[in-house]
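Exercise 3.2. Students should predict the tertiary structure of the chain below and write it as structure tokens, then compare their answer with the key that follows.

Predict this chain's 3D structure.
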Amino acid sequence: MSHPDQVTGPMPVTRYADEDRSDRLPRRVVVSGVAWVLVAATAVVGWIGTGEAGASGVDDESLGRIQGQLGESTVDGPSAAVPPVLLLVVAALLALATIGLFARRAVMRLLLVVLGVAAIVLLALVGRWETLPAMVFAVVGTLPLVTGGAHRWLTSR
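Answer key:
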């Protein structure tokens, strides 16, 4: 006769049973990867919105007319403090780092966070509304990567 505290059969299967298997891509890493791709997409949308992708975003005739009526200092021309093409470069690097994350390169976690912050700062500097969604996606991309399961998967071979 066995003691009631002893388990005599196989352990019950739970929905978390194969969560820590090292050969299976964890859902949290997939969620993180999708979020980082969305940060890259917002950077591309921000680049398109700056006018770099097509025609110039400033109508010179209207700008001249408004400055003539209200004065030169009232309306400033376009600012070139940050070249918007940097948004494309950061977006491409984010996509490559996400691929590296799926290839189990643990160092990509840090690189993704740094590139995400760079994308957010660049979007803010060029004055794009895409800054806010990029912030949300960056948080969603970062949080799953600091969990133990993601760390175990990334560091196991």
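Discussion points: Residues 27-49 form the longest helix (23 residues). The chain is about 55% helix and 0% strand.
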